[in-house]
């Protein structure tokens, strides 16, 4: 592979104009496709194979007019202090009448006709149902609702709106721009050249735009939601900058050894480019592996993000060498451009590696103990899907949530929907009523609504209100108790039932995610182990990489629980309300962070193996690897942390958690695992670190990640001053 990529790099350098034109053509084609694409599908979440999803689908089938997935609004009224809602009936009725005439409205339930007034008379709510989904709701429909609410507020009532109708899309923050700005500064400090820093950023931006516009162009073909593009952009920016950084760094190193520009570009593609290919493959494996979880949304997000990583790899292997052809000397450090040799100091990376190699045991123990302590809070992780209670109090949705909880009880915001199938019952109405009576007698249930039947009269829907909040452990226990008592209830009533609703769905999703986590982790770790076995031709190095990753991801989960669940430092990170961790986050974070962790493993350890293959002793090879790659890996990790942290500002809760989790995972993995644990373990193992059974050595194909086949292709000459070097 090294030889192929060497030729590819030389070819891209030579035919640089054509390569740039091809990438610009790809960008233009993606742009045209994105412009002609229709509206993006919604971020609808479905999870086949769980009870709550089956019951939800059953409701949609039996009650087509109810639009179970349609937009809705819950208008909450709070009377002035010392008054009751009944004393303010006129403005409430006026709002109900006005909203009912609005466009796309299917119906409005008045609080006085629906029994939606609190016992103390201070709070009431009206439910608005729409004929269309939230994404299809027009601005005219939203404006009609807002106007009616403002009119009611003018009478002295406190009026807030919950539900999905007026739910605003998460606003993009300035953090994304700041993150890229930090990346630019890190690149400038690392390279000491504006051209080198700019080249890495420009190529990354081109690659990300190609990826994003391609996703937009294909969004209706593959049902790709907006979250797919947002996460693809987050990951694409980070890996694209890092991959370009490694190729440009190797190019500068080869120029320092005396190679001509075109030859240096080929060698950079053949060595660093090979590491980029295998690093990218580990990320792609982890992302595509999300398909084994069985959640369509995760599968689509994984595929979209994997496509962005593939584009980043192609950019690093072709566009970066091509642009180096236009700036062969400008990307060099000022000292090199003036024809002076680089400084002979070891550098901080080599000095640190030498320190670790001399004291591997205490350094290893401290690092493992620190990560273990950071991971401890993860043992108490609670999974769920934060709703309006996690939003800031500045939003109307959060204020409506709080008013309902105060007026009707904490469980009112998370009712359980019970779907009764009485098709085989002698008296369907009596059977549904019997199920309702049994549920009402269950401890933890405050009330059960009368059953509502479909047109055929065989399927009924009941609403059971818990006594506790939707995300409380007591509510989860209640759902489990109801399902555990189901056989006895069904036998007595003569009908079957299933439990659904947002609360039950969140519980079922969390349970399925927990069951899928270990198989998924085993799948991606197993595949990545084989890939790293092929790259490093060692059994212990891939094993050490996997174990180190488990330490770093555990610490990342501990940090997430500390901030988002326990609320420590929540305000600093922009978390308005602590709560459960999103159910899909652990498995999603495991996949992406594993791929990124293996990135640093490949980049750092491949230079150590290269030095070892070229004859250096194991301990000396560790120091050499840090001398050449330590500074670059540190810069790459800083760039990734900056990009991921930037997505925490102004984004939705999922993106906020993912950004924080990835930034923490990169911090712990790149700084602690790869910079501390890896050199300590390699120093302790010595020559055994590179052990591979002979029979396995004969079976494995050679990929030459260390560029051994290129070593004597063109011997380096004495370094030539850059100003005298002509373009090739």
UniProtKB/TrEMBL annotation:
Keywords, alphabetical: Cell membrane, Membrane, Transmembrane, Transmembrane helix
InterPro entries: MMPL_dom, Mycobact_MmpL, SSD
Any one cellular-component term (Gene Ontology): plasma membrane
Highest taxon of source: Bacteria
Stretches assigned to the SSD domain: 194-326
Compartment annotation: Cell membrane
Topology with respect to the bilayer: Multi-pass membrane protein
Pfam families xref list: MMPL (PF03176)
Gene3D superfamilies for this protein: Multidrug efflux transporter AcrB transmembrane domain
Transmembrane segments: 177-194, 201-219, 231-252, 264-293, 305-327, 361-379, 517-535, 547-564, 584-605, 632-655, 661-685
Family: Belongs to the resistance-nodulation-cell division (RND) (TC 2.A.6) family. MmpL subfamily.
Protein name: MMPL family transporter
Organism from which the protein derives: Actinomadura syzygii
């Amino acid at each position: 592979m090294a030889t192929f990529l060497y030729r590819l790099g030389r070819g891209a350098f030579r035919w640089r104009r054509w390569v740039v034109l091809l990438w610009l053509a790809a960008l233009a084609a993606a742009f045209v496709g994105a412009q002609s694409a229709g509206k993006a599908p919604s971020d609808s979440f479905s999870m086949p194979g769980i009870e709550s999803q089956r019951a939800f689908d059953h409701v949609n089938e039996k009650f087509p007019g109810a639009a179970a997935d349609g937009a809705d609004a819950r208008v909450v009224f709070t009377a002035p202090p010392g008054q009751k809602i009944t004393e303010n009936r006129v403005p409430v009725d006026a709002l109900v009448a006005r909203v009912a005439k609005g466009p796309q409205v299917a119906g409005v339930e008045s609080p006085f006709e629906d029994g939606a007034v609190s016992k103390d008379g201070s709070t009431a709510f009206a439910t608005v149902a729409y004929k269309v989904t939230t994404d299809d709701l027009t601005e005219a429909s939203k404006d009609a609702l807002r106007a009616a609410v403002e009119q009611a507020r003018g009478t002295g009532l406190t009026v807030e709106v919950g539900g999905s109708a007026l739910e605003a899309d998460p606003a993009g923050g300035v953090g994304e721009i700041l993150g890229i700005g930090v990346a630019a500064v890190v690149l400038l400090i690392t390279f000491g050249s504006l051209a080198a820093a700019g080249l890495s950023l420009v190529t990354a931006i081109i690659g990300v735009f190609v990826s994003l516009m391609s996703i937009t162009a294909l969004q209706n073909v593959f049902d790709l939601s907006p979250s797919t593009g947002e996460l693809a952009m987050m990951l694409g920016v980070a890996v694209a900058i890092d991959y370009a950084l490694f190729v440009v760094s190797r190019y500068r190193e080869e120029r320092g050894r005396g190679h001509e520009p075109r030859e240096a570009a080929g060698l950079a593609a053949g060595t660093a480019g090979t590491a980029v290919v295998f690093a990218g493959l580990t990320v792609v494996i982890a992302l595509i592996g999300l398909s084994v979880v069985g959640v369509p949304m995760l599968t689509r997000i994984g595929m979209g993000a994997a496509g962005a990583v593939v584009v980043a790899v192609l950019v690093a292997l072709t566009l970066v060498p091509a642009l180096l052809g236009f700036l062969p000397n400008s990307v060099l450090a000022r000292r090199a451009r003036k024809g002076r040799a680089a400084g002979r100091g070891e550098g901080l990376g080599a000095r640190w590696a030498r320190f670790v190699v001399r004291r591997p045991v205490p350094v290893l123990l401290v690092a493992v103990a620190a990560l273990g302590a950071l991971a401890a809070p993860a043992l108490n992780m609670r999974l769920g899907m934060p709703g309006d209670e996690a939003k800031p109090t500045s939003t109307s949705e959060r204020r409506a949530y709080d008013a309902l909880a105060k007026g009707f009880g904490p469980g009112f915001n998370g009712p359980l929907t019970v779907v009764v199938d009485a098709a085989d019952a002698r008296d369907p109405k009596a059977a549904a009523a019997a199920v309702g009576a049994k549920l009402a007698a269950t401890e933890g249930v405050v009330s059960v609504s009368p059953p509502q039947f479909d047109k055929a009269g065989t399927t009924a829907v009941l609403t059971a209100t818990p006594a506790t909040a939707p995300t409380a452990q007591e509510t989860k226990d209640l759902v489990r108790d109801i399902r555990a008592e189901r056989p006895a209830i069904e036998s007595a009533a003569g009908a079957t039932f299933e439990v659904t609703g947002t609360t039950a769905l969140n519980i079922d999703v969390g349970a399925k995610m927990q069951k899928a986590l270990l198989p998924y982790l085993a799948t991606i770790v197993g595949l990545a182990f084989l890939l790293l076995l092929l790259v490093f031709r060692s059994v212990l190095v891939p094993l050490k990489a996997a174990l180190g990753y488990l330490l770093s991801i555990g610490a990342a989960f501990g940090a997430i629980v500390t901030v988002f669940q326990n609320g420590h430092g929540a305000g600093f990170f922009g978390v308005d309300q602590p709560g459960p961790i999103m159910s899909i986050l652990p498995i999603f974070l495991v996949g992406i962070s594993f791929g990124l962790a293996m990135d640093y493993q490949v980049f750092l350890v491949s230079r150590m193996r290269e030095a070892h293959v070229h004859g250096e002793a194991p301990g000396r090879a560790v120091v050499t690897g840090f001398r050449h790659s330590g500074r670059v890996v540190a810069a790459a990790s800083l760039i990734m942390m900056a990009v991921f942290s930037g997505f925490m500002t102004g984004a939705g809760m999922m993106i906020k958690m993912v950004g924080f989790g990835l930034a923490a995972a990169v911090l712990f993995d790149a700084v602690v695992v790869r910079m501390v644990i890896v050199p300590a373990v390699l120093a302790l193992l010595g020559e055994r670190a590179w052990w591979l059974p002979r029979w396995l050595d004969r079976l494995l194909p050679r990929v030459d990640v260390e560029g051994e086949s290129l070593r004597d292709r063109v011997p380096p000459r004495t370094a030539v001053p850059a100003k005298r070097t002509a373009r090739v």
